[in-house]
Amino acid sequence: MHPKLGFEAAIKAIAEWVQPKSAISHLIFCSMSGVGMPGADVILVKLLELSASINRLMLYNLSCYGSGTVLRIAKDIADTNPGARILAVRAESTCLSGRRQYREHGTTACLEQVVPTLVCSRLEACLVKAFGWATECGVASDRNSIFWVVHPGGWKVLDEVEETLFADE
């Protein structure tokens, strides 16, 4: 777990938000990097000097789907708690994908160079298959009006997805 890495990101987010830290009502912290006691959420609350009574949720070992889960939970909290102010933190020091090498203190994974091209070669067809029903039924105007997340896989994957989907914009 990386509460100090999460702390650095949280400080930047709070500064951009321009509201007092005391307004934060909920903290969601997610990390794949391990489990410890006290949890990273408790450590982050102390580092940020937040109220000890803040509503906290610590998510462990969610792997690649952790960020999407954090966003979904944050949305659910916001939808059901008017006035909630949620700080959502995802902190990792690992990259996940293809080849895995086991080392003394954890797992290291490296992204194969061909992965971004493979992901994007069928991306449009997959999005049509996944979200076409929503536009056909009038549930959504387009796929961007539906909550969905690209598997992050690494910066090269995200960059190629952006180029594939938004090259015309």
Automatic annotation (TrEMBL):
Record's InterPro entries? Chalcone/stilbene_synt_C, Chalcone/stilbene_synt_N, Polyketide_synthase_type-III, Thiolase-like
Molecular function GO labels? acyltransferase activity, transferring groups other than amino-acyl groups
Annotated Chalcone/stilbene synthase C-terminal domain residues: 101-165
The source's superkingdom equals Eukaryota
Q: State the Gene Ontology BP annotations.
A: polyketide biosynthetic process
* Residue ranges occupied by any Chalcone/stilbene synthase N-terminal domain in the UniProt entry: 3-100
Kindly state which keywords UniProt assigns to this record, in alphabetical order.
Answer: Acyltransferase, Transferase
Keyword flag Acyltransferase = yes
Q: Which family does the record claim for this protein?
A: Belongs to the thiolase-like superfamily. Chalcone/stilbene synthases family.
This protein's name: Chalcone synthase B-like
